[in-house]
């Protein structure tokens, strides 16, 4: 073959795939812009999917015991609320019994700080401290309009959060109640062949989402246990309530761990000493570093078959683009995309003959049908190529 023809063929191939890559990247950018525009509307849907993933095993068990779908959905949701309410009721007496002592020590701690500032090496006078406090008070009074505006803004944000919460609960109820009807409806709309592929792919994606929630619960449990042990050893009061707050805060990226850590340090500072508070801070930082750089990436990568570096990168990109919720949903979204890509690669391997039907582990009967269809389609394509 002439050298120019080989080069021409290579250039055409490169140009063709470059154009396809540009089109795919443009489509992905468009999808990202649409998600950004409708993020406030899509957030309750995403949260409802996560909550329904957690509650579905309980609802499925209730259905197997004869509960109607609606009653099973309500019972599972109420059951979780009762568990959370029980935890709050369990820690409330401890908080109540130690609250007055905590308040007294907080006042004493403020007095100690003033005494410390008045001594060496600072030698701040009592008049200077009072003057500083009066300056802060004057600044607050002068900023009254801004504070009022901030309060109204906060009320508006709280209203949006309340609406999102209500929508999330309603969607969760319908997802749990009517979830099993979705895939049959999808097969009816898309047809048997496409529906079989969608059923298998979405079933794998849903299982991956469940794995993410379970893994996040394990990570939060490890964090809260380590911090609880540290607080107990140091003799910090309210160790159990702080550990529970840490556990639930672990499901809220960045802010949850930060708030729980600040509370623990403040309690240690008020009830013990500055040294104890510093030790608590060191423990919390070490635990969070262990979680963020080792435990969470390792467990998430194993449960969702993702590389730890990809987990860290997805969290960084999701948080940068969509904030706190973006950081929370980044890992499951990337994992679901990876599941879909692996499923696509599996179907390609079945058609090329690189993968045998007996090697495929399908989650649904429809997945077995889809795999068999891909094998048949591959045989037809190879027979057609040989005839040509």
TrEMBL record:
Protein name: AI-2E family transporter
Primary site of residence: membrane
Transmembrane keyword on record: yes
Family annotation (InterPro entries): AI-2E-like (IPR002549)
UniProt superkingdom: Bacteria
PANTHER family associated with the record: PERMEASE PERM-RELATED (PTHR21716:SF53), TRANSMEMBRANE PROTEIN (PTHR21716)
The keyword Transport appears for this protein: yes
Membrane spanning stretches: 12-31, 37-58, 70-92, 157-176, 226-248, 254-287, 324-344
Residues in coiled coil: none
Cellular localisation: Cell membrane
Origin species: Leekyejoonella antrihumi
Recorded topology in the membrane: Multi-pass membrane protein
One Gene Ontology cellular component: plasma membrane
């Amino acid at each position: 073959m002439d050298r120019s023809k080989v080069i021409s063929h290579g250039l055409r191939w490169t140009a063709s795939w470059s154009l396809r890559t540009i089109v795919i990247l443009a489509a992905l950018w468009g999808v990202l812009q649409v998600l950004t525009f409708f993020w406030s509307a899509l957030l309750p849907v995403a949260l409802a999917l996560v909550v329904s993933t957690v509650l579905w095993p309980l609802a499925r068990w209730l259905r197997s015991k004869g509960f109607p779908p609606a009653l099973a959905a309500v019972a599972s949701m109420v059951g979780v609320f009762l568990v959370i309410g029980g935890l709050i009721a369990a820690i409330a007496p401890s908080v109540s019994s130690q609250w007055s002592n905590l308040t007294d020590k907080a006042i004493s701690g403020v007095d100690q700080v003033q005494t410390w500032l008045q001594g060496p090496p600072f030698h701040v006078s009592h008049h200077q401290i009072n003057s500083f406090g009066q300056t802060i008070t004057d600044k607050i009074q002068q900023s009254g309009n801004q504070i009022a505006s901030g309060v109204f803004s906060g009320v508006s944000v709280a209203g949006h959060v309340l609406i999102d919460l209500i929508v999330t609960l309603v969607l969760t109820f319908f997802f749990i109640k009517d979830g099993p009807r979705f895939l049959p409806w999808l097969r009816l709309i898309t047809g048997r062949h496409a529906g079989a592929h969608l059923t298998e792919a979405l079933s794998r994606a849903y299982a991956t989402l469940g794995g993410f929630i379970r893994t996040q619960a394990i990570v939060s449990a490890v964090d809260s246990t380590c911090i609880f042990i540290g607080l107990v050893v140091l003799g910090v009061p309210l160790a159990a309530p702080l550990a529970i707050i840490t556990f639930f805060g672990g499901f809220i990226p960045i802010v949850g761990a930060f708030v729980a850590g600040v509370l623990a340090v403040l309690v240690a500072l008020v009830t013990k000493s500055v040294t104890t508070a510093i030790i608590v801070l060191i423990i919390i930082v070490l635990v969070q570093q262990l979680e963020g750089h080792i435990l969470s990436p390792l467990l998430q990568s194993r449960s969702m078959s993702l590389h730890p570096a990809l987990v860290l990168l997805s969290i960084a990109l999701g948080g940068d683009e969509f904030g706190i919720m973006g950081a929370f949903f980044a890992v499951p979204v990337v994992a679901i995309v990876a599941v879909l890509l692996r499923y696509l690669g599996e179907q390609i391997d079945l058609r090329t003959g690189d993968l045998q039907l007996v090697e495929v582990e399908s989650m649904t009967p429809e997945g077995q049908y889809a795999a068999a269809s891909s094998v048949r389609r591959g045989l037809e394509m190879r027979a057609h190529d040989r005839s040509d």
